[in-house]
Every structure is written in structure tokens, then in C-alpha cells.
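Budget justification aside, the reviewers requested a transparent look at the raw inputs and outputs of the sequence design task funded under Objective 1. We therefore reproduce one unedited record. The lines immediately below are the C-alpha cells for a 350-residue chain.
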């Protein structure tokens, strides 16, 4: 999509988002639901702990491999709780939200909550903006022709084939998140300043250490070294794959605004996001992130209310003539992979 397509006429700006917000608020969809979240937290963490209890009970057996796959699902569901806490969907006050985020992120999953919140907030502020959104910066994957042409060596080889490599590479996403978390907590600039601002650096570091010691200690106590390492590889690999598959349909392959584009908040969020249909199963499997448009417009809206907000937002977008992207799960992956393949085309032709 070109800049001229993305730029909103001046007559549209100003109060469009405010009017939508009033409609959503009038429906009670911005009200917190602490009781429901308390039940969700108890159930999700309870299932997670029961899963580890089964791992201990099974012992040194090859049955641990399917259990590792199930624990990858449970770990991702806990990570979704950390996401909701980071947006303060659960509680209005920062304190309780941070407690849940630190327990779910650092202690349970092994992911720095403070680092992730900072990174994710920057993504929400400018989704799909190559200069502002850390999720589409050049890295293992490239998202624009300019990023592709700047690659060299092994990175260029990967960029040519990135659509085919996308899902296999997600198997390393869990490891990458662990490494990024540690680097965020200990990394400093040359002048000694912390590279990443984290509110509770010491607490986060201790919780990450407790996670690592507890995780590896349990595996090696219950299984032989070979099976313990294999369990960790399956668990971490499938957790990374699941996380990547949950976030990939949201923005990949959608318009990527640049500094030349002039969008108000409403259009910036709607035009760069994609919803995924699929019913209650998809809602649970993706942590309600399949309602990505509504989530980006109202990031502190409780997860359970996003489904109810969808018809309000969709109708409002139709009234204003704003494209509202929504597709099935498989088609969302096809569009994301098609974008990755298209970006790498100049390298294949060269």
C-alpha cells in the first residue's frame, strides 16, 4: 500500500477515535473484569503446575516428549497472561498488574517482563513502522525491500528463502526471547548507562535466575541428562513456534507506514492490523489476539470483551470507509508468508 493510500484526508482527523471510544465505553467494554481474570489466572497457572506435577510423576520415560509438547501449550497460555498484565487489562493499578506480569513472565516463562513491556509498547505506538516498530526491524527476517537489499552473507541467503524458513526459524524463537531477556537486564551502553530501562531490574534478575535453576533442576532431577535435554529442546522449540504462530497473523503482510504517511490514531491501528476468524477455539488458542484491530485500538480492554467490541468497531469502520481486514487463520499465514516471499524476490532475481 502506498503512502498516498495511507494518508488520511484532513477532514477525517480529530474526533473519529473519540466517537468510537464513546460507543465502546457506553457498551461497558472498557470496564475491568477482575473476578473473571482471577479465575483465568488460577485456572491457567493451576493447569501449568499440574502439568509439571505430571512430568515429575512420569519420571525418566520417553512419554516425556508428548508432555513437553503439552507444556509448550501451557507455557504459551501463561505468557498470554503476562501480555494482558502488561496492558493493564486485569487491574487498573500498576502494582497488581506488575506482580502478575513478573510471576507469569520472569518466574514462570523465563521472559523479562520489563523488557517485553517496553518493546511491546513501542510496537503498539507505531505498528508496522519500519523506523519505530521493533517487531519489523531488520534481523533474522526482513520486512521491506530496503532491508533485504542491505543484507550480506548468510543473512542474504536467509532473506532469499525466508518464507520457507519462517516456521522452522520460529523453533528458535523461545531461545531468542530468553537471550534477549538476559541481555536487556545486564546490557550497558559504552558510557555505563543501562541499554534497556527496566523498573525492577534486580527483582527481574532474581526471578529469571530462579526460573532457570528451577526449570533445569527439575528436568535433570526427574530424567536422565539426554532425556532432560531432549525435553527442553522440544518444550522450548514448540513454545517459540506457538508464540510466533500466535503473533504472526496480526500485522505481517499488512501495510507498513513510513515517516511520509500522515495517519490519525484510528487509521494507524486499523490499517496495519488483521483480525483472524475462527470461533472460540481460535480465541483461546491465540489468547484473543485474533481480535488484533480491537486490541490495538483499546489495548487495556479485557481479553473477554474484545469479541463483543468487534461488531461495534467493524460497523464504525464501514461508516467511515476504513478497510477492516479479517480473514481465516490459514489465509492469514498465507498472506504473511506471501509478503516475506515478495520482499525476498529482488535477491532471488539478482
Amino acid at each position: 500500500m502506498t503512502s498516498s493510500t495511507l494518508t488520511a484526508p484532513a477532514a477525517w482527523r480529530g474526533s473519529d477515535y473519540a466517537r468510537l471510544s464513546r460507543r465502546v465505553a457506553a457498551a461497558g467494554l472498557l470496564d475491568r473484569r477482575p473476578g473473571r481474570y482471577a479465575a483465568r489466572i488460577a485456572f491457567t497457572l493451576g493447569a501449568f503446575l499440574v502439568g509439571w506435577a505430571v512430568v515429575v510423576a512420569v519420571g525418566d520415560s520417553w512419554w516425556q516428549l508428548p508432555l513437553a509438547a503439552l507444556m509448550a501449550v501451557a507455557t504459551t497460555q501463561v505468557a498470554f497472561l503476562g501480555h494482558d498484565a502488561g496492558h493493564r487489562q486485569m487491574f487498573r493499578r500498576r502494582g497488581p498488574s506488575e506482580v502478575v506480569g513478573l510471576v507469569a513472565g520472569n518466574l514462570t516463562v523465563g521472559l523479562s517482563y520489563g523488557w517485553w513491556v517496553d518493546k511491546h509498547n513501542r510496537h503498539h505506538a507505531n505498528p508496522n513502522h519500519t523506523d519505530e516498530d521493533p517487531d519489523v526491524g531488520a534481523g533474522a527476517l526482513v520486512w521491506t525491500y530496503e532491508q533485504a537489499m542491505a543484507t550480506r552473507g548468510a543473512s542474504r541467503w536467509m532473506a532469499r528463502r525466508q518464507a520457507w524458513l519462517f516456521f522452522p526459524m520460529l523453533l528458535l524463537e523461545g531461545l531468542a526471547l530468553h537471550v534477549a531477556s538476559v541481555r536487556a537486564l545486564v546490557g550497558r551502553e559504552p558510557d555505563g548507562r543501562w541499554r534497556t530501562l527496566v523498573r525492577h531490574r534486580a527483582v527481574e534478575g532474581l526471578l529469571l535466575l530462579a526460573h532457570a535453576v528451577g526449570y533445569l533442576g527439575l528436568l535433570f532431577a526427574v530424567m536422565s541428562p539426554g532425556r532432560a535435554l531432549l525435553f527442553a529442546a522440544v518444550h522450548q522449540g514448540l513454545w517459540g513456534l506457538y508464540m510466533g504462530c500466535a503473533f504472526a497473523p496480526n500485522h505481517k503482510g499488512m501495510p507498513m507506514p513510513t515517516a511520509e504517511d500522515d495517519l490519525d490514531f484510528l487509521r494507524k491501528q486499523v490499517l496495519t492490523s488483521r483480525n483472524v476468524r475462527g470461533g472460540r477455539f481460535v480465541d483461546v488458542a491465540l489468547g484473543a489476539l485474533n481480535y488484533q484491530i480491537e486490541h490495538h485500538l483499546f489495548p487495556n480492554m479485557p481479553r473477554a470483551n474484545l469479541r463483543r467490541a468487534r461488531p461495534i468497531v467493524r460497523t464504525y469502520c464501514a461508516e467511515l470507509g476504513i478497510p477492516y481486514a479479517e480473514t481465516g487463520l490459514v489465509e492469514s499465514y498465507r498472506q504473511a508468508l506471501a509478503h516475506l516471499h515478495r520482499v525476498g524476490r529482488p535477491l532471488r532475481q539478482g
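The CA atoms of residues 38 and 90 lie 8 Å apart. Confidence is low (pLDDT under 50) at residues 1-14. Computational costs for records of this kind are itemized in the attached budget.
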